[in-house]
Amino acid sequence: NAGVTQTPKFRILKIGQSMTLQCTQDMNHNYMYWYRQDPGMGLKLIYYSVGAGITDKGEVPNGYNVSRSTTEDFPLRLELAAPSQTSVYFCASSPSGQGAYEQYFGPGTRLTVT
Amino acid sequence: QQQVKQSPQSLIVQKGGISIINCAYENTAFDYFPWYQQFPGKGPALLIAIRPDVSEKKEGRFTISFNKSAKQFSLHIMDSQPGDSATYFCAASMMGGTSYDKVIFGPGTSLSVIP
Asked: Which residues, 6 or more positions from A100, have their beta carbon under 8 angstroms from its beta carbon?
C-alpha cells in the first residue's frame, strides 16, 4: 500500500509556464483534496473531489484547475504560473462518511515560480 | 465562522516538559476535531481526534481536552521528547449536511523540544 503519491517532488517554473502536479492514491478513497501550504499560513484548500467526475472549488482556486477521471488520480493543473503560486502543494485523500476527517496526505511538491 | 484559531505560533519546551497548544472555533456545526502532526519535509498525518460530546481523549502521551461551551480545545503532550518536534495543526470538520465533508485547519504551531 503506497498510500498517496505525488510527483514531482520539486519543480522550478518560469512565470507564464504551465504544469500538472500528479496525485495518485491506492486506498480506494472517494474524497481527494489539493492544498497549498505557505509558511505560517496553515493549509489552504484549492480544490476537492467527492468522487470520479465530481470536483469543486475550495478556498483558493484561482489559477488552478483539476480533473478526476478515476477514483485513484486527481491531477492539479497550473496555468500561466505566477510568483504567488510558489508554495508547497499537498494532495490528500479520505474515506467518505464518518471517516472523512481522517485525511491521508502525500509527501508534497515544492514549487518555485521565478 | 469557518475559521479555526490556534496559538501559540511557535513553542519551545524542554525535554520532559508539557507542551500545550490551544485552538478555538466559532461554528457549532463542527462535529469532529482532529489534530495533525507534520515533520519537516513530510505531509501532515492524523495524530488524534475527538468528538464534541467527549471532554477528554488520551492516547499515550497525547491528550486532547475539549470545552464545548467555550468552543475551545487543546492538545497536551506530556513528557515531551525531541522526537515530538514538529508542526501541529488543529482542525475542525463537518460531516454531512448540505456541504461536503470538509476539514478546516488552524494555522499550525511549530514545536521544538530541546534536550
From this structure: A31, A94, B93, B95, B101, B103
